[in-house]
Automatic annotation (TrEMBL):
Family annotation (InterPro entries): Fibroblast_GF_fam, IL1/FGF
Gene3D superfamilies: 2.80.10.50
Entries under PANTHER family matching the protein: FIBROBLAST GROWTH FACTOR
Stated family: Belongs to the heparin-binding growth factors family.
Name of the protein in its database record: Fibroblast growth factor 3
Matching SUPFAM superfamilies: Cytokine (SSF50353)
Naturally occurring in which organism (per UniProt): Nothobranchius furzeri
């Protein structure tokens, strides 16, 4: 039971105190809309990160359906007290 690349996330701390977590290794490549980007013949694309997200029932959402601005992707850090440290 070791850690692997599936366990690596990029943590971003937002101004309002929320944190988001994106997969370091998984993302989706999406083409830019027509007219955006450069004028060369190849179509430009961007990589969209997959974020950790939970739905209203507490179940995980699929990474490719999440965005950093979704409410379900914003997490509030919690300070642990002594009782919580005993559980960990």
């Amino acid at each position: 039971e070791g850690f692997n690349k599936e366990c690596e996330f990029v943590e971003r701390i937002h101004e309002l105190g929320y944190n988001t977590y994106a997969s370091r290794h998984h993302s989706t490549e999406q083409p830019l809309p027509a007219g955006a980007g450069s004028n060369n013949k190849r179509r430009a694309s961007i990589r969209r990160q997959w974020y950790v997200s939970i739905n209203g029932k507490g179940r995980p959402r699929r990474g490719f359906k999440t965005r950093s601005t979704d409410k379900a992707s914003l997490f509030l850090p919690r300070v642990l007290d002594n009782k919580d440290h005993e559980m960990v």
